TrEMBL record:
Record-level GO BP terms: meristem maintenance
Originating species: Cajanus cajan
Residue ranges occupied by any Aminotransferase-like plant mobile domain in the UniProt entry: 2-86
InterPro entries xref list: AminoTfrase-like_pln_mobile (IPR019557), MAIN-like (IPR044824)
Highest taxon in the source lineage: Eukaryota
Record-given protein name: Serine/threonine protein phosphatase 7 long form isogeny
């Protein structure tokens, strides 16, 4: 799921722990957008940014350094965002 919707796969056991991804990995790998991104790259970076907001600000886990990948499934189609409520 990560490689499909984020464009890159985190290392299992290091950045991907179970079904949670470390926020540090998101910052290190998804912070900078290429100079002329494709539509897919732009969407991947938007998903990563929103995941970071969810895991770091809106709904942090107990440690505050990981976000559950279940939220990524809600970000697959960014154009349907108005139909989804996270509350």
């Amino acid at each position: 799921m990560c490689s499909t919707y984020l464009g890159i796969m985190p290392v299992k056991g290091e950045s991907l722990i179970g079904s949670m991804i470390k926020l540090k990995w998101l910052r290190e790998n998804m912070l900078e957008l290429p100079e002329e991104p494709s539509q897919e790259q732009l969407h991947a970076h938007c998903r990563a940014y929103i995941l970071g907001l969810i895991g770091g600000v809106l709904m942090p886990d107990k440690t505050g350094n990981k976000v559950h990948l279940m939220y990524l499934s809600l970000l697959i189609n960014l154009r349907k965002g108005e139909d989804i409520s996270l509350c």
